Amino acid sequence: MATANPLISKLERFVRLSTDDKRALEELVQRKLHRVTARMDILREGERPETLKIVLSGWACRYKALEDGRRQILSFFLPGDLCDLNVFILREMDHTLSSLTMLSYAEITRDMLEHVTSNYPRITQALWWDTLVAMAVQREWTLNVGQRTALERMAHLLCELFVRMEAIGHTQGNSCEFPLLQSDLADATGLSTVHVNRTLQELRAQNLIVLRAKELTIPDLEALKEAALFNINYLHLEHEGRALDANAT
Amino acid sequence: MATANPLISKLERFVRLSTDDKRALEELVQRKLHRVTARMDILREGERPETLKIVLSGWACRYKALEDGRRQILSFFLPGDLCDLNVFILREMDHTLSSLTMLSYAEITRDMLEHVTSNYPRITQALWWDTLVAMAVQREWTLNVGQRTALERMAHLLCELFVRMEAIGHTQGNSCEFPLLQSDLADATGLSTVHVNRTLQELRAQNLIVLRAKELTIPDLEALKEAALFNINYLHLEHEGRALDANAT
DNA sequence: CGGTCCCTTGACAGCCGTCAACTACCGTGG
DNA sequence: CCACGGTAGTTGACGGCTGTCAAGGGACCG
Description:
Two copies of one chain form a homodimer. The first copy, chain A, is α+β, with helices and mostly antiparallel strands. Chain A has helices at 6-12, 19-30, 110-119, 121-147, 150-167, 182-189, 193-205, 221-228, and strands spanning 32-36, 41-43, 51-57, 60-65, 71-77, 82-83, 96-99, 103-109, 171-172, 175-177, 210-212, 215-217. In chain A, β11 (210-212) and β12 form a beta hairpin. In chain A, α5 (150-167) packs across α7 (193-205), α5 (150-167) packs across α8 and α6 (182-189) packs across α7 (193-205). The first copy, chain A, is globular.
């Protein structure tokens, strides 16, 4: 079971937080809450990021679009995930953040974040960890669209999302909620929607997935991983940083 | 003209460094120097990163390989670029670092880096900036292989490399050194070497590039950018952080 | 001068995109 | 209760972009 606060549960995958740390994180998240409906742009390319956003419930994504309309989804955000640490440093967004489902998220201002990072070293460390993992995921996505076939690519994306859902306690057995449209899968994999459809059919035919009514079931995760050439190392779930024990400071 | 130390010139694109900052950086880089010949793996997937590496001269890259040998180059490193800030946090490499040319680089240990980050806030800020820009570049690459056609994709990669070479003062007019093989371009763009060859021919036929003898010339950069749907914003060269003036602290 | 690496070119195939029509599903309203 | 409209998913036909295979050419080097 996840804690009520998905950011805390997430960072605890990396460091052991003290009660102080947790209280600071609770405050951080409760200051400015937002809700938006599905399929709304939250922060657009070209705008200046003012706040760090943290997904509390629902799914979001970031994407870039070319002038002629082609669109690439670059990341999916699940509960607990952070968007655009850019706020610290970069002047303008080079991509767009957008909700995929009904979404609730917290906003954290630059000042609030600076307060936390200068007083809570373990939290700072954990935010770094999260950033580096996000980079690793982005690299894997580049590999995914660059080298894998359509079938492998789709299998890989489904594996990643399932494993990430599992890590935040949002799976029930072999199944999890799965709100993406086939057109989202197309934009994320660089395939056409028609070919996404065919690829999903093929995965179904091989009994690798059951996907309908916004629910994904993976009867045999190992088999799907094999079909995807999925190597989980890039998610860095090893809980390494648990060495950073709150009681050890 | 660049400073003798490419790391300093790079970070100065973002912050104004004090003489103290510069001395610290000089020391950092001079401690452990290395030279390797072209096409050597420096740090392999699965190994534990012990030090941060900084390219001083030559080109390097990072790549991931699938079990069956397919290979994706994920980034190119030019003089002044940093490899694997991972050293701080992640337990094992999820990709491989490799030299492309004769390469000289400096190694920075965890201790040295921590000393610098706790005593030189402007340097810390500049390292963050560099990390966020690297993420932005990785996103653009995902877009590149996911959405652009072969011609656009190749044009985009050549644009990026030329602009980055220009930013570090390594261009002479319209030309710059260009040590990549067509097979490197293939691995970076997700195309076959044969198709890379054809795509280069096409770019030559349109007078967009001259590429031979390890030298790239771009007669009309604007035209190449247009063919590539190249939007420079993702490189975040705006020198925004110059607000972080060394004399303002 | 032979060897090796890299680049180039042609022929052919296949994966995947495009176009278009059709079905399924769902919420709304008469 | 059924009609209706809109969105999402499905399927077929066809074409083209890009991969594969294979052979040849050029540059550099021992």
